[in-house]
Amino acid sequence: MNVAEWEARAAAARERMAASGTRVCVCSGASCMVSGGDAVLEATEKAVKSAGLEGSARVVKVGCMGTCSQGPLVRLDPDGVVYQKMDASKAGRVIDKHLKNKALLRESLLFAGPAEPGVERPSEHPFYARQLQVVLEHCGRINPEDIDEYLAVGGYRALYKALSSMSPEEVIGEVKMSGLRGRGGAGFPTGLKWETAYRHVADHKYVVCNGDEGDPGAFMDRAVMEGDPQRILEGMAIAAYAVGADRGFIYVRGEFPPLAIRRLGIAIEQARAAGLLGRNILETGFNFDIEIRIGAGAYVCGEETALLISIEGRRGVPRPRPPFPAESGLWGKPTLLNNVETYAGVAPIIERGGEWYSTIGTAKSMGTKVFALAGAINRTGLIEVPMGITLREIIYDIGGGIPGGRRFKAAQTGGPVGGCIPEQYLDVRVDYESLVGLGSMMGSGGLIVMDDTTCMVNLARYFMEFCMDESCGKCVPCRVGTRQMHLLLSRICGGEGTERDLALLEELAPYCREASLCGLGQGAPNTLMSTLRHFRDEYLVHIREKRCPAGECAMAGAPAGVR
Amino acid sequence: MEPLNRASQIKTLTADDPRAARVLLEIERYRRSPDALIQVLHVAQDVFGYLSLDVLQFVGRELKLPPSHVYGVATFYHLFSLKPKAEHRVVVCTGTACQVRGAEKILEALRRGRGLTKGSPAAGGRLSLDHAHCIGACGLAPAVLIDERMQARADAGSIDGLVTAVTGVPR
Ligand SMILES: Cc1cc2nc3c(=O)[nH]c(=O)nc-3n(C[C@H](O)[C@H](O)[C@H](O)COP(=O)(O)O)c2cc1C
Ligand code: FES
Fold first, then answer.
1. Nearest CB to B136 within list A219, A375, A446
2. CA–centroid distance, residue B137 to ligand 2 (Å)
3. pLDDT for the residue A561
4. For residue range B119-148, what is the model confidence (pLDDT) as tens digits?
5. What angle do CA A219, B40, B19 make, to 5 degrees?
6. pLDDT band at residue A562, thresholds of 50, 70 and 90?
7. Contacts of A206 (CB under 8 A, 6+ apart)
8. What is the pLDDT of residues A220-236, one digit of tens each?
9. Predicted complex ipTM exceeds 0.90
10. What 3-state DSSP class applies to A451?
11. Of A44, A257, A524, B14, which shows the fewest CB atoms inside 10 Å?
12. Alpha carbon distance B114, B112 (integer Å)
């Protein structure tokens, strides 16, 4: 495809989208699918047909809309009206009432577009009002299985801009200027990583996307892969141009429902067919292609060196760095490895400029961050907020607070290698540095809210068990350390712990953190240490009074299961 | 872990077996590159149900990889199973979101209801239980997978009946 053809195709797609009348967007994100989205899609299609509305309405499958707890969801665009908790018969009624009779089906309304007394517009509703969607801007709005819809909303304009009017150095400069930092957890400056990969000369270079998303309770990357896969491909292609790579891999978590893998596959096929991947992209002489690799259930393969080894078809055991992958990665060649959300943020930065992006967020953490809200929170789902927002705003305004009138106890971020943030820090601004300062970390974006029924000692035991199970066994501090710490924590949870056990834990944890080879062992003691820091009393009650204040641990002497 | 000295028990698998032919197709798709091992094992497990030693040997031979390497990879990753799976499977998510929303209670209900726990199947081996770290329904926790059916917002009180309804395996 040359530039003229590509522009014509995008224009035609835009016209088609505008001419199709009302777009009945049925959420086909994993969460809505689980709660019956399939049946809703089928019923909607049938209802539109039998009402003879095919000329003025089009049913579209879209990715995650964000408010997963209210699913299955149906949104009617351009009105912007969202209906919740749909099933086949309610979906039929939506078509009947809203489309045919032009009235709102009030009992199923979640958000109403036009000013309606008693219902809020999406933009005024606190769920949306505090969000700023950059990465998720198209997610839940376009059909992820149709590249034309991506082209219609401006897809691949950024790639074309980079290829036609920017040198690789200029692309890297723009990313540096944006202040974008790695969204996979550690927050390493993305532009700097690209520059390293660019500087290393080699006959081949690779670009790898980390879609392993192993933190339980996290589903941001999956939602982007399911909802806007072309955005990831475009980001990877821009990165490949910048660092001089010709081949890319997306490593996807194997336990995912097959949807993400299927949609990425479709996206790659369509991009190839359109000449946006492959040889001589947009007739600029740039060659780049992408393949999918499916993981096989090893948490440690989210760690970058293990991931690359796994792509090579071997046991995913981390290796020491340096050399960093940007210097020597896949098959010994310079390899740029970034997270899904990092790549998905690249196209807007190139299109609108790094300076624009850098005005969002805080001085050291620029831009937006996607979070997956789960646990004891009213509106579980997917959100994107500017960095620097407070935890309270996320949990109470966007998330709607804690269900059942219970009390907020702590938020867990960063997954098994992250930590807990207690109530007194609800007003902390969410950015890389302040979360680390509290003994937790930004992590990849899983945010699990806990109320007073969660025991913090048991939580520490739970994550220690996770890390123990997932330790690859290569280095001793991690392999043996996690096992010993798990033993001590189990004793305390079981009502058999002593203060000496606590002292031993405090002695062991820093060893594991300092001496382990990779981030798994280094991070394994994090939840333990952060709960000890913020909830030491709870440990002491378990030890001294043989009692679990949250009522979660079955103590020695009490029959199992007694709460 | 299974002992390895069972060479005598390994049946030779050839491409005459249509399932092996399907695996070969995948191997060809990757132009016989040994890097494709994990991707090929996914397909092999899919068509054979599990990775028996003869399947591993076949894959190794076709990819020109030593058996030790293939066995090492197959045992490293949790998703690969070297033993046949039970006819019906219940997977309880014990990921963080589900843990906080009561996964323990679901496990307890299945244990009490029909003696089903991880590693000890019930109903004469027809029904097994596994834990998973996250099965992708975190927003609707706790989640349970019964055969192919995903149950969101699972409830300890009704889980046992649901298992019967979906699998047909009575208590
Ligand atoms: C144990 C462990 C697990 C990790 N899991 C993931 C993961 O699931 N997804 C991810 O993007 N990064 C994960 N990381 C971080 C990666 O090693 C790497 O830093 C990141 O993918 C780099 O991309 P970024 O700079 O865009 O964030 C993990 C790190 C460790 C130590
Ligand atoms: S934590 Fe259970 S589905 Fe994600």
1. A219
2. 5
3. 41
4. 888 888 899 999 999 988 899 999 999 998
5. 120
6. very low
7. A245, A247, A248, A249, A329, A330, A333, A334, A335, A336
8. 999 999 999 999 999 99
9. yes
10. strand
11. B14
12. 6
Crossing angle of helices A259-273 and A229-243, in 10° steps, is 60
User: Which positions in chain A touch B38 (Cβ < 8 Å)?
Assistant: 293-296, 310, 313
∠ CA A193-A220-A514, rounded to 5°: 55
Q: Separation of A3 CA from ligand 1 center, angstroms?
A: 36
Report, at the CATH architecture level, how domain A147-357 is classified: 3-Layer(aba) Sandwich (3.40)
A522, pLDDT greater than 80 = yes
CATH code for the domain defined by A368-451: 3.10.20.600
pLDDT of residue B1: 47
Q: Could you name the CATH architecture of A19-123?
A: 3-Layer(aba) Sandwich (3.40)
Closest chain A residue by Cα to residue B43:
A294
pTM over 0.90: yes
Nearest chain B residue to A472, by CA: B76
pLDDT at A121: 67
Give the start-to-end residue ranges of the domains of chain A: 19-123, 147-357, 368-451, 456-545
Instruction: From B131, B135, B144, B145, give the residue whose CB has the most ligand 2 atoms within 8 Å, as the site to mutate.
Output: B135
Using CB atoms, pick whichever of B77, B136, B140 lies closest to residue A256: B136
Of B34, B38, B135, the CB nearest to A310: B38
Question: What dotted CATH number matches A456-545?
Answer: 1.20.1440.230
